[in-house]
Design goal:
homodimer
Chain lengths: ~160, ~160
């Protein structure tokens, strides 16, 4: 099972976040931040019917993340945690996930809000966000139990750049 | 930006779903279905602190999906839709996303529930699920607006096998 899996970017994310430092650490901390998602021409037919959704899931490649660590000190904590218990970008497979607000689609460009993604990030996939599919409203969140409430005010400090 | 991105599986999902036909189409339709996620030994240190979370996000490779279509007739509809407005597996980058219930972790094996994933699926990433990060409880869901309420009773019919 150690075969490589190869993916090809289907587009690119444009955002005001040019450097890891100061970038919001989650969409919840990026309320209102606008961005655009440019889908390459050959994939645009796949965007039909997407505009009916108010929120979409973006999967993307953390292109600025080099290598990985199995233990990281996450932005919202001061202690090292297992990387799979965090959303830090230095993961074995550096795939990012953000749920953003979709405002409109024009010529293959998605205009979105709540963008916590670095400028020029390669896009891997877009999925419609459906509350019934994408998880419960109540969940136990381990070490994040306190920090999740204050995450809205926090920004990245560049530690994973 | 058409450079290939290469990922390596970090583990493998074991489930009772051996064939695409009859597999639940979303975790919400797979309530209670047990499965295990085997994380390869070299990545297990990254699982520390994960057990505090009641729900986790699994990202995986739809290994049984060959090629892709930009328009698909999804399980919950009778009309073709843009693939990015669906959760169908025949996507340009066939990455699957499921939020599952985490029961316990033993020797690098995660015991989970609500599994809508095929047996032997290569695992790409695990993230902690945090309601505040992973999307709003209210959202507009386009063509899925009616079907999302009945999705709980639906199974896959093998059309993307």
């Amino acid at each position: 099972m150690s075969t490589k899996i190869a993916y090809t970017p289907i587009g690119i994310v444009h955002s005001p976040h040019r450097r890891p430092r100061g970038t919001p650490i989650q969409p919840a901390t990026a309320a209102g931040v606008p961005g655009t998602v440019e889908v390459f021409e050959e994939y645009r037919e796949g965007l039909r019917d997407l505009e009916g959704f108010s929120h979409i899931v973006l999967l993307y490649h953390f292109h600025r993340s080099k290598g990985f660590s199995l233990r990281v000190v996450p932005f919202l904590d001061t202690r090292p945690r297992g990387v799979f218990a965090t959303r830090a970008p230095k993961r074995p497979n550096p795939i990012g996930l953000s749920v953003v607000r979709l405002k409109r689609i024009e010529n293959g460009v998605l205009h979105v809000r709540n963008v916590d993604i670095l400028d020029n990030t390669p896009l891997l996939d877009i999925k419609p966000y459906v509350p019934e599919f994408d998880g419960p409203t109540e969940a136990r969140t381990g070490w994040l139990e306190k920090a999740r409430k204050t995450a809205r005010r926090r920004k990245a400090d560049g530690r994973f750049a």
